[in-house]
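Why do we care about 3D structure at all? Because function follows from shape, and shape follows, mostly, from sequence. That is the central idea of this module. The next example makes it concrete: a single protein chain, its amino acid sequence, and then its structure expressed as tokens.
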Amino acid sequence: MISTWRSSISTFLNKPLTYCLIIAGLTIPTSLWAQEPVFFKEPETTKEKRAISFIKKDTQSTDNKYKIAKTDLNTDSLNEYIVKPQECRSGTMCTHYVIAFMEGLPIELLSIKARKITIDTQDQYGVKNLFIYGHETNDFKKTPYFWTPGSFSYKQNLGVNTR
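And the structure:
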């Protein structure tokens, strides 16, 4: 009985298709979940409204309306926010803001023109990386931005400061 079982396993493992399936099964799930999407909505909470008020004051655009997405970039159970103008449609280039709160006050971590922002599952110094989609002709080209604790901001992979 045991020798028959070993023979079946040996036959199964000696087939090239088996190895392809094992490798695909181990690699495909990680590439499928390499980025977290960002979902924008109307601001609801007081904190979300304060983040938008901060942007309006900073940009001196009191008339503009904004949508907001909450996310926890550093897994501290406190949300950071990604904000974009309400009229910014999918695939169009517009300014996105990444806002956090420090000691109760909003601070800007990043302000950048982009078509889309996604969140990487990888982190730098405990803060998740961002993917910025802002290429003029290629909608699928993304530029990674990494957290830099010294400047308390996100910087492009090439070390270009975005603030």
